[in-house]
Design a protein that fits this description.
This protein is mostly beta strands. It has two helices and eight strands. Residues 1-21 have low confidence and may be disordered.
């Protein structure tokens, strides 16, 4: 019984310290080391003549190229997307980002995926497309908005995991 009490006295402070420790990000990019994200997403195309909601798998490749820039920057591309996931950004961005599109790392550590390039919505011309997707570094949640001009074209969200 004395051993149990001693063990508990040792473990309780260690458990309390672990609970107080800040959570490490689930995703940290390292220069020149590609990371693949496999995501299960739901997308909704909101323009009137397009498909409605679809769900499916989407796989990205991310690579940090320069951590010295402000903000740190790199590239991303679509690796694969489920055929039935017709509303996914994977289908819309497959040609534009076949080689690579830009990514930036926010001050909060979240990864911002852009297509075709970082730009303010207010700068978009009629019919010009812009994608901004954010992957939360702590949870690997994905949220994406595609704009056509200043109007929302599509929304997508889901959860991701790292893998090869």
């Amino acid at each position: 019984m004395a051993r149990l009490a001693t063990a508990l006295m040792i473990m309780v402070p260690v458990a309390a310290q672990a609970a107080d420790a800040p959570a490490l990000p689930a995703l940290t990019l390292v220069v020149a080391k590609p990371v693949e994200l496999m995501c299960r997403t739901k997308s909704v195309v909101v323009k009137t003549d397009a498909a409605n909601a679809t769900t499916g798998e989407l796989k990205f490749s991310l690579v940090l190229k320069n951590e010295a820039t402000k903000p740190p920057s790199g590239a991303w591309r679509i690796v694969s997307v489920a055929d039935a996931h017709a509303g996914s950004l994977g289908h819309r961005e497959a040609k534009v980002c076949a080689e690579a599109c830009p990514l930036t790392v926010g001050a909060d550590g979240n990864i911002e995926l852009w297509s075709p390039a970082p730009k303010s919505i207010t700068e978009l011309k009629e019919g010009e497309m812009l994608l901004l997707a954010v992957v939360k570094s702590k949870t690997l949640d994905l949220r994406a908005t595609t704009f056509s001009g200043k109007e929302i074209e599509a929304l997508e969200e889901g959860s991701c995991r790292t893998g090869s």
